[in-house]
Amino acid sequence: MLDKTLLFLSKPQSISGLFPEFKKAGITAGLAENLSGALDFIQKNRPCVIFSAPRIAGYRAETLLSQAEQDGSFPPVIIFDERGSADDARHYMSCGAKDYWLEPLIWEKIETVLSLPSEAKAKSQPSPKSTTVSKHSTGVTIIGSHPAMRRTLALAAQVAPSKASVLISGESGTGKEMFARYLHAKSKRADGPFIAINCAALPEHLLESELFGHEKGAFTGAINRKPGKFELAHSGTILLDEITEMDLGLQAKLLRVLQEGEIDRVGGTETLKVDVRVLATTNRDIEESVKNKEFRQDLFFRLNVIPLRLPALRERGDDILRLAQFFAARYTSEYELPAPSFSDDAQKWLLSYDWPGNVRELQNLMERAVLLAGTGPISTKHFLLDPDAWPLPEDALPEEEQETEHADTPTARADTPLADALQENEMRLQDIERIAILKRLEQTSGNRTQAADLLGISVRTLRNKISEYKKLGLAVP
């Protein structure tokens, strides 16, 4: 993880889609919509980089750049503009900006800046035709001692230094992207970028633009030139996730890239050379897809130089318990709870369950169990196998039962502070919801739009919840 802090001085919609990537990379990102808010955040958090729009209501970037010029310890400022020109770039660079970008902001480019040493940042200049080389985080943790995992890991370690394409197969949730990152981290390209794209997430025409880039005016909405993922991955690695979902027509264009090392931007006339190692993943039987004419045989052969199959979690024996301990320890640390322990019945259930969602399902289950167990040991009831069996809160019982049946059972009240609620032995489901909401608000410095994005709920729902908490006297970030 990068473990850095960023500040964006812009409208929320310019960056809201980036917050899942920030969370994954361990980055704290703040958002300010005026100069005073920005200066307050800088004083409290000292971000390593500031990304600023040139102007928003009541704010102009020149004011911030003037402040930076007077303060030698001020973080570097990168200006990003929805519509820009060479004259704009020269203007803001002359005012002290370290770089000038055109929107949309993309995670891969932000990551390259964060990964550069400070000396390189100070010397950076805008260069629309070049791709900055970045050092990707190599902190990849793969847990498992089952023979099936050891064989897979040994094969991955042996082929990682090469440029060979690797096809990683396995059920959803088995950790295919993690293995791809491991291959990159152990390769000779570890100092280059690692770029991942989900081929199932976009329709064909958008996926082509994402992969190969497009020129201004190439199609409706293409208001600026945009580099594609292959350009951004130059000298590094690209991961094509769910490759079997790619349209046959686009597969032919991808095959040319693999064979010739060249790309053509959509709407462009210039052929660009790229040096990229290609990794691909699939959760389907790709050979069956080839037989059914759903996937090109020549592309399959080109990708399948090294086949890497990840075993399902149910095939990994005691690795299930090792992973459960690992994830439980991660979440107890995050929620500031004591080290976890598992009851015998919990361990037996973990080993006997079929795990259709594999490692991803186990990870989610452990977060739930940690929150429900509080400071006590984790048992099967904390897996919430039957939500209807969870004890009713005290205020839902008849008055005569409240004083007797639950007299000695601690519960997290609605007005309990966040830190105190986490120390209760048992928590109600609404307490867990409240903790999650308040924690995300803390992470986003109180920004409702960003917090709602991380929580997967609408801003309206979040505001309603915040109103409830304020009525109860809770302090909301």
Which key phrases capture this entry?
single chain, 477 residues, 5-stranded parallel β-sheet, 21 helices
User: How many helical stretches?
Assistant: 21
**Alpha-beta content class:** alpha/beta
Care to count the β-strands?
16
Shape: globular
Helix content: 40-55%
In whole angstroms, the N-to-C terminal distance is 25 Å
Mean pLDDT: 81
Work out the radius of gyration. Answer: 25 Å
Strand content: 5-15%
For the sheet with most strands, the description reads:
5 strands, parallel
- Order of strands across the widest beta sheet? 2-1-3-6-7
Q: In terms of per-residue confidence, which ranges show pLDDT below 50 for 5 or more consecutive residues?
A: 116-138, 395-419, 422-426
Please give a structural write-up.
This protein has 477 residues and is of the alpha/beta class. Helices cover 42% and strands 13% of the residues. It contains 21 helices and 16 strands. The protein has helices spanning 19-25, 35-45, 61-70, 86-94, 107-115, 118-123, 147-159, 176-185, 204-212, 229-232, 248-260, 286-291, 297-303, 319-334, 344-352, 358-373, 399-402, 418-421, 429-443, 448-455, 459-471, and strands spanning 5-9, 28-32, 49-52, 55-56, 59-60, 77-81, 99-102, 166-169, 194-198, 213-214, 226-227, 237-241, 262-264, 271-273, 277-282, 306-309. The strands form five sheets. It has a five-stranded parallel beta sheet, with helices on both faces. A five-stranded parallel beta sheet has the order 9-12-15-8-16. Strands 4-5 form a two-stranded antiparallel ribbon. Helix 14 (319-334) packs across helix 16 (358-373) and helix 19 (429-443) packs across helix 20. 34% of the residues are buried.
